[in-house]
Amino acid sequence: MPNNRPVKAFDLENIKKKDCPMIVFCRDRKNLISRLISNFTHGHNHVMELWSPQYFASQNFNGYSRVAINKYNKKHIHLMFYKPKLSIKDRKLWLQEISKAIKAIENKPWYHRIINRQGYDYLGILGQLIGIDQINNPWKEYCSEDVTGKIRRRMKLNPVQAKPNPQELFVFVDGHPDFEYMGELNPPAKT
């Protein structure tokens, strides 16, 4: 466990709107692609944001979208929640950024994402896998790039890499005093 702290259970039933956004790190232990990413990163395979008490904002393979919390509340999916320390203004701007990105593609046909340069940076994932961050689509982002951008804009913090993978971003967030560890869902069994 990072920082040798005890695992704190996260209570999905008592999320308040004022607690959002939160950064949520994910490790899916069942999905093949997720497991391959975890093997490569030696840790988390996805990062998303808790956007509201009912929804995550998640940069998935079909683009940026809101996802019901229950989709990720599965025994094989480990989630870790971190609350960024934000001013009232930056909290509002962060949430507005999420809303704007979701509304840009929500309920639009699939080709809308291509025409408007939205969707997922598959090329960037390839660049991560072979260790060359410069290989990416400059008009698209993968999950950790998106969250890193918000950390830079809203918190004026600079994670170590321009394009960190989910685990590299986790190491930065977990070790930084401007992020509060809020708890976990479905942590792996202690060995």
Strand-helix topology:
Layout: E1 22-28, H1 32-41, E2 46-50, E3 55-60, E4 63-68, E5 77-84, H2 88-105, H3 110-115, H4 122-129, H5 143-155, H6 166-174, E6 179-185
Antiparallel strand pairs: 1-2, 1-5, 2-3, 3-4, 5-6
Give a quick summary of the entry:
The chain has 191 residues and is an alpha+beta fold. The chain has one domain: endopeptidase domain like (from Nostoc punctiforme) (endopeptidase fold (from Nostoc punctiforme)).
Cα end-to-end separation: 11 Å
Number of helices: 6
Unreliable stretches (pLDDT < 50, length at least 5) are none
User: Helix-strand pattern, N to C?
Assistant: EHEEEEHHHHHE
Given helix and strand content, the structural type is alpha+beta
CATH topology: endopeptidase fold (from Nostoc punctiforme)
Average pLDDT score: 81
**Main sheet record:** 6 strands, antiparallel
Strand line-up in the sheet with most strands: 4-3-2-1-5-6
CATH superfamily: endopeptidase domain like (from Nostoc punctiforme)
Helix proportion of residues, in percent? 25-40%
What's the total count of β strands?
6
Rounded to an integer in angstroms, the radius of gyration calculated over CA atoms is 16 Å
The top level CATH class name: Alpha Beta
Shape, please? globular
- Name the CATH architecture: Alpha-Beta Complex
Q: Tell me the domain tally.
A: 1
